[in-house]
Amino acid sequence: MIPAQVAYVRASTLEEAFDALSDPDAKVLAGGHSLLPVMKLRIARPSLLVDIGRLELGGVRLDDGKLRLGALATWDDLVRADELETPALAAIAECAGVIGDLQVRNRGTLGGSLAHADPASDMPAVVLALGAALELRSSEGERTVAAADFFRGPFTTALHADELIAEIVLPLPPHGSGSAYVKVEHPASGFALAGAAALMQPDGSRTIAVTGIGAQPFLLSNNTEPGAALAEAEIYGDRFASEEYRRHVAGVVVRRALERAAERAKGV
Amino acid sequence: MTAPPGRFELVVNGEPRSLDVEPRTLLVHALRDGLGLTGAHVGCDTSQCGACTVLLDGRAVKSCTLLALQADGAELRTIEGLGSDGEQHPIQRAFVEHHGLQCGFCTPGMILTAADLLARDPDPDEASIRRSIRGNFCRCTGYQSIVESIRAAGAALRGDGAT
Known about the structure:
By secondary structure, chain A is an alpha+beta fold. Chain A has helices at residues 14-20, 35-40, 75-80, 90-96, 102-107, 110-116, 123-129, 147-150, 226-232, 243-266; strands at 7-10, 26-29, 48-51, 60-63, 66-70, 133-138, 141-146, 151-153, 156-157, 164-171, 178-185, 192-200, 206-211, 218-219. Helices cover 32% and strands 15% of the residues of chain B. Chain B has helices at 27-34, 90-97, 107-120, 126-132, 144-158; strands at residues 6-12, 15-21, 53-56, 59-62, 75-77. In chain B, strand 1 and strand 2 (15-21) form a beta hairpin. The chains are: A alpha+beta, B alpha+beta.
């Protein structure tokens, strides 16, 4: 399978990328592991690819009480980042390590995946549970969108066509917090049939987000028991898993994620 | 209308090579059809089977899911260039000695993925090996002898001779 005809420009600066993205039919290419497969199927047929893969938008850093993940950080970068080896942030590397396979993790990027917004992708649950915000840039300037406002539906986000995700910014949870990501995956594709990320904080508060079960990943309300929240959630069934089965499995992964996050918080 | 070609220059198996490609050309086709390196196989063509795996700047990647132009300026290693001076690489030798292949279609990808794994972890346990070749499908021998081959290759590369 070969993509349809397309023009290509490799951006060496953000300004070059923004110039190229003024073409309304342009698409941003980072690692290519979401976009190229759909171009090969000719589901996507952009007229121009703007390759941002060489821009300085990678890396993981701690800065002023915040964790900043570069949009071009690969899954493998996240798996290996020393900064993420804390109980509070453990969900990030845990999640990155179960995405795709070794080769996919070498190329696939955090920003690319979030922008693609596959409703069964893993990391959206983690960025939601950890209360991340996305820093978006365009020729117009910068804006920050909370992860909870970013995912709008299947393959649909708040990102404008001429915008790039620059960084994903997370508040550092207080000492004594723990986080985890648990999924039950489709055995062939590896995508989540149901995935859950949880953050437990020392004051007993907890944040839970789920993916793979609905139109987009979403947070479960703090005011309701997870089981009750899932009972009311709009959950999709498909040929792989019925709605009833997904609702059940979602409850299981939520419970496991909470247990693991609590163990990490306690330092077990 | 044909899109204007792009010049793509890289170092393949230690030699500088260049090629004019259409922007939509996938790396695996540039290697096979442009440079005559047919060791990278097109299997599933959907980034699942890993038969097209090559080493891009030392890391295993699926060359069916990269544009050739994304590899511009990179250092690429394919199965043709893994050994040196006419000698098989220790991973290749381990696959021969431990029956790590039958039809051979998946083998270049298996070996190059193993090369990435062993470069990071010289002594992986079985679970780690199985996790690492999750993106490489074998449809004839099954995985047991492939896992044994990779363990033996690790031992050979570490020089402890316990193959």
